[in-house]
Write a structure and sequence with these properties.
The chain is α+β, with helices and mostly antiparallel strands and about 110 residues long. It has one domain. Helices cover about 20% and strands about 25% of the residues.
Length: about 110
């Protein structure tokens, strides 16, 4: 079964049923708490103070970017994008997310 067949079961699925809505973090208001190089990736723990989920923390994974660029960037949007600086993966900033994000960096 190809990827298209696998995901075709979800064509009618919608987030509209969700009663919880969190605001998007302001990409201009962030603090980099930790950066680690793991293999070909940079593992970055970022805090967005206006984001209520997980105390504003997010684990972002980057590749093909110089660490200096991440550290001096004036905007750091945690969402995936085809333009600008975009993470290749994002994980929950809890113990499971930390373990999974490190395994991702070590094995991809």
């Amino acid at each position: 079964m190809g990827a298209i067949g696998f995901f075709s079961d979800f064509e009618d699925w919608s987030m509209s049923e969700s009663k919880t809505s969190f605001p998007n973090p302001d990409p201009k208001k962030f603090k980099i708490k930790k950066v680690e190089r793991i293999g070909e990736y940079f593992w970055v723990l970022v805090n967005y103070p206006d984001c209520p989920s997980f105390g504003g923390d997010k684990i972002l994974i980057y590749n093909n970017v110089a660490i200096d660029r991440i550290k001096i960037y004036k905007e750091l949007d945690p969402h995936f994008s085809t333009t600008g600086l975009s993470p290749v993966a994002r994980f929950r900033p809890d113990s499971d997310g930390i373990k999974l994000s490190i395994k991702f960096c070590e094995n991809c």
